[in-house]
């Protein structure tokens, strides 16, 4: 009986050691850059999007049309959420510029690291400089 208990304990411990060796940590980094866009200075309101990113809304142009741009930056926009701001940056919209999205996934252990690069266009605004201004947001 004593030998059976020792054998059972040894098997359980070796299984736990094997499981511990198989665990790995995965880290994913995503970087967005606006390439070859148009340099602009725009004013609008900072809004939170459902995916956790931020947008500049209620941006008017010369024709009084309202635009909305997804903000591309490492800045913490939660501090100016719902406030009116002026942003200097690079715009990728329609024919102006592209947004480059680089994703890098690193995994500890035997799994391979992965890299991906995608270029897309759309209403993106790469933020270089931002300041809060007076005014209200709808």
What spatial order of strands do you see in the largest sheet?
2-3-4-8-5
Number of strands: 8
Order of helices and strands: HEEEEEEEE
Q: What fraction of residues sit in β-strands? A: over 45%
Outline the structure in words.
The protein is an alpha+beta fold. The protein has one domain (26-132): OB fold (Dihydrolipoamide Acetyltransferase, E2P) (Beta Barrel), CATH 2.40.50. Helices cover 15% and strands 51% of the residues. It has one helix and eight strands. It has one helix at residues 2-22; strands spanning 26-35, 38-48, 54-60, 66-72, 84-92, 98-107, 114-120, 124-132. Strands 2-3-4-8-5 form a five-stranded mixed barrel. Strands 1-6-7 form a three-stranded antiparallel sheet, with no helix packed on it. A hairpin with a 6-residue loop joins strand 6 (98-107) and strand 7 (114-120). The protein starts with a helix and ends in a 6-residue tail after the last strand. Mean pLDDT is 75; it is low at 1-21.
Concise summary:
This protein is α+β, with helices and mostly antiparallel strands. Helix content is 15%, strand content 51%.
What tags apply to this protein structure?
138 residues; alpha+beta; OB fold (Dihydrolipoamide Acetyltransferase, E2P); five-stranded mixed β-barrel; three-stranded antiparallel beta sheet; 8 strands; 15% helix; 51% strand; disordered N terminus
